Amino acid sequence: MEYSEKVMDHFMNPRNMGEIADATASGTVGNPVCGDIMKIDLKIENDIITDAKFKTFGCGSAIATSSMATELIIGKYTAEALEVSNKAVADALDGLPTVKLHCSVLAEQAIKKALKSFYEAEGRMTDEFAEKFKILGEDEHDHGDDEESADEHACCLHDD
Ligand code: FES
Fold first, then answer.
1. Which residues are within 8 A (CB) of 111 and not within 5 positions of it... i.e. 6 or more apart?
2. Is 103 one of the catalytic residues?
3. pTM of the prediction?
4. Residue 87 maps to which CATH number?
């Protein structure tokens, strides 16, 4: 399995790892198949994400995507961060092996879960925003990606 230099860099030297003690919002999601867990803390000031930190118990791709995802959302308005898809995170890492693409879904879900709790706490959850949280699904521990097949989760069953 070939990983890009950026994936290896973010795996070996993760950015923004840790927790924010006075986080404005947090999101924790899990992959039901491999058991990997990702938590993202956000500090939001004047609707701008001024800090983001993550803790990921998971594979190298999950750690690299968490790291890149935090870099992509820091400095963005919350509505802009909502547009950061798992594909955008994977692209920013110069791609992920196909069987590891699902790992990047965790990062998008964790960001969206944190932003959902932020909007709900602020009383700002509109229908337009609700539409953007579909990836969390009814069961928020689900991958939320209908196009993924069981085969694409096969990597979760292996050490890597
Ligand atoms: S997130 Fe579980 S194998 Fe990558």
1. 27, 40, 42, 69, 73, 81, 82, 84
2. yes
3. 0.84
4. 3.90.1010.10
